[in-house]
Automatic annotation (TrEMBL):
Gene3D superfamilies: Winged helix-like DNA-binding domain superfamily/Winged helix DNA-binding domain
Pfam families in the record: AAA_14, DUF4143
GO molecular function: ATP binding
Protein name per UniProt: ATP-binding protein
PANTHER family (UniProt xref): AAA+ ATPASE DOMAIN-CONTAINING PROTEIN, ATPASE
Transmembrane segments: none
Top-rank taxon: Bacteria
InterPro entries for the chain: AAA_14 (IPR041682), DUF4143 (IPR025420), P-loop_NTPase (IPR027417), WH-like_DNA-bd_sf (IPR036388)
Domain AAA: 37-171
Domain DUF4143: 232-381
Organism, as annotated: Candidatus Thiothrix anitrata
UniProtKB keywords: ATP-binding, Nucleotide-binding
Keyword ATP-binding: yes
Amino acid sequence: MEKQYRAVIRQKIVDSIATSPPPLTHRDVWLPQVRGKATAVIGMRRAGKTSLLWQILRERLASGTPREGLLYFSFEDERLAGLQASDLDLLVETYYALYPDWRDQRRAVFFLDEIQLVAGWELFARRLLDSENIELFLSGSSARLLSREVATSMRGRAMEAVVLPFSFRESLRHQGVEPTGNVTQLPKAVRSMLAKHLLTYLHEGGFPEAQGLDVRNRVELLKGYVDLVLLRDVIERHAVAQPLALRWMVRQLLGNAGSLFSINKFHADMKSQGINVGKDTLYSYLDHLEDAFLVRAVNLASDSEARRRVHPRKIYPIDTGLIPIFDRSGKANLGHALETLVLHELDRRGAELGYVRMVDGFEVDFLARYPDGHSELIQVCTHLDAPETAHREIRALQHAASDYPDAQQLLLVLERPALLDLPHDISLITAQEWLLMA
């Protein structure tokens, strides 16, 4: 069997080195840069993890690394079925047999895709970092290469690069209409074009394969993504005993983006439907869905762990394109989609997030704390033309600012209102400008 594996591995290495990086839409993914650490590229299925590996390879090639020093190797190959961790040394030995000048003398870069298919890969990866002059990128299905598992199994030897579906800017780039220059000084025609694209993005989302599809094909594609995540990354992986309760939870979460989600209330709803499932089980299901990157949970912003625990979390889907598929209200729900889009953009910018709820009932969508120390209170709203809406959103920010006086107050809207008297300490900006500023 080893002889068979050796021949396949050799051929895959030769083929990989001879392959030119494919032309792909550039992704704006933050990559950690700490020598001696592997980079674990993680994210939901079909978000573009493999494409990012090829992008990094192409960038290293452009910066002067010879092609033979850049090895992309996918373990998703039926000829490698049954490969064990003890067989992984064949990859290293075969590579250096083909390119002996790279051993110890030069720093090769290995991109190991779908490595989670080999049980025990973690020991191999750690040893590779310790014993060879190799920069290591790891990626694969989120079913077996989750962020918390990488942190545990690699014992501090890996850092994460999270791949989300296309951002708004990336979707524009994919379509060849990404604007250049100062986004606040664009011509009126360009601003109108961007506004139209933003409305389309809010409805269709950013999954790369879904771009440009008609409604029926897009819906079926995205439904398939959700079903695959549920089956492979949750039900099979965690031996879910109550798949019906899990699917009810998914429909509830994806169809009510940005809503507060209470396990206690959902447990009561399940009980009323005759579904007997424990609260602890439901908490586990929610954790599994977040681990699989299908949803993103936001806690109450509070320095008190007790307060965070007793308050429900706000739940958002990984992509705005999932909202109209699971929302049965029949409404456009642009506000929910815009809030979801802002959340993921804040994640891309590295912000630590929470939502603010005051004792008087006022609520602000996000308190964002950035790595450089500054913070923002962000309220998201589609339109402010109605005086009562503007008054409510402004008062919420002002009340929250009393608890967070150092935070910049920001009001994000789809369209700038014709007339609005804003307090001097609140900044209003259109969503399309804010999304394109980074």
